Each structure stands twice: as structure tokens, then as C-alpha cells.
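Lab notebook, bench 4. We co-purified these components, and the gel suggests they stay together. Before we commit to crystallization screens, I want a quick structural picture of the whole thing.
Request: model the full complex, all chains together.
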Amino acid sequence: MNIILLGPPGAGKGTQARILVEERDMVQLSTGDMLRDAQASGSEMGKLVADVIARGDLVTDEIVIGLIREKLNAGGAAGGYIFDGFPRTLAQADALGELLIEMGQSLDHVVEMSVDDQALVARITARSTCGDCGEVYNDNTKPIPADEKCTNCGGSNFKRRADDNEDSLKTRLLAYYKQTSPLIGYYYAKGQLQSVDGLGEIEDVKASIASILG
Ligand code: AP5
Ligand code: MG
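Here is the predicted assembly.
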């Protein structure tokens, strides 16, 4: 089963993707994570995209489609793929459709996670991530444990993202509404769109997604 988690910054795509990986043996393909990995590795592409990401704008379709193509060619997802933060433009959506056809695979569900903008600001400015395993924390809803050890891997290398500030978030939201939200109509027209309320507790959102995926 291949699915897209579609939603604005802070909607909870990464949080739910990690749960699905754990419980359904799926593979999370987050273009945001891939781009941050490229930055951390010091590659030319990583250097090229650093400012764009920190500002909150989208990187080029060419770069992200290339990253996804590479991962799909590598294969290896028994339970299927979770596309997290990809596609984000109509060109990326078309490219994904073509890539899946080439592989003889299909897109089974597009899950839109809806949340209001006020909640997003609060969520994003309170987020931190384990730099070792990627576990996502939140100062308000899922704080880092008192012993400062990651609940998933035991590491203590917590990070805040360079684009998790109010200014970059405004740009990210604008990019979402201008370039990504047309995908809601695109997948609705294809009969593939289903929506969940992303404002509930993590467990409630998980249950809503499970009822769609079956
Ligand atoms: P990316 O990394 O994809 O960021 P994003 O889309 O802005 O989304 P986030 O990762 O910020 O949010 P999320 O929905 O994963 O929420 P999370 O689960 O962490 O992209 C970053 C940048 O890379 C882009 O701006 C762009 O520059 C570039 N990029 C990436 N993909 C691209 C593409 N395809 N094309 C072009 N450019 C691309 O949750 C957020 C917080 O809320 C956490 O603290 C979490 O603990 C908390 N939380 C989650 N769920 C709940 C809940 N139900 N209740 C309470 N708190 C919750
Ligand atoms: Mg994310």
C-alpha cells in the first residue's frame, strides 16, 4: 500500500508516518528529511538548498523528484511507501504518478491532515527532534523526558530546525497555500482524497488514519 500524507507544516505528517513505519512495516519517504540529511552531509546539493529551506521556500521540483526517484529505485518497502511532504506541487504529483506506473505500482490513499494555522504556529515553535533517530518531540504535547534521553533510541542529541521560527513559518504556510493546496483538488478529482482532523490527540489522529487505510 502506497500513501501520501498531505498537510501544511506542523500538521503531524512526520509524527504519523513514524507510527505507520513502526506498525505496518512501511517506508517513510520524507523529502524534508532527505534534504536535511543532504545538508548535514555537506554535499553540493545540500549547500545549494540550505538557504531556501531556512527561508521556508520550496526547493526545485527537479531536486526533489530526483531524490524520490532514487529512493524508489532502491526499493525495499514490504508494507509500501508513505510519501511525507511529497508531492508539494502539481508537477511533483504528475511525476509521482508516472514513477509509480513505471514501477507497476499504484497510489492507494491520499490522506489530507487538516489543522488551523494558529495551532501550527504553536506546534512548530515548540518542536524538537532527536538528531540520532528522528523521534519528534514537542515542548507542550510530548516533552523531552526529564533525564534528557530519547524515548526511542536513548540518545541525547536533540535539535531544533532552522526553519522552525515564526518568519520562516509564514513563508512555509504561504508556499503551502499557493503551491501545495491545489493538490487537494487534484486528488479529490481523481477520487483518491480522504481527510482527517489533524487537531486531535496523536492517538486519535492515528485511529482516523487507520480507519481510512483499513
Ligand atoms: P518538511 O520537512 O516536509 O516540513 P513541513 O512540510 O513544513 O512539515 P513539518 O515537518 O514541519 O511538519 P509535520 O507535518 O511533519 O509535523 P510533525 O509531525 O513534525 O519540509 C521542510 C522544507 O524542505 C520545506 O519548507 C522546503 O523548503 C523543503 N521541501 C521538503 N519537501 C519538499 C518538496 N516536496 N518540494 C519542495 N521543497 C521541499 O509535528 C509538528 C509538531 O507537532 C511536533 O512537535 C509534534 O510532536 C507535534 N504534533 C504532531 N501531531 C500532534 C498532535 N496530534 N497533537 C499535538 N501535537 C502534535
Ligand atoms: Mg515533517
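The chain has a mean pLDDT of 95. Worth comparing against the SEC data before the next meeting. The first helix runs from residue 13 to 24.
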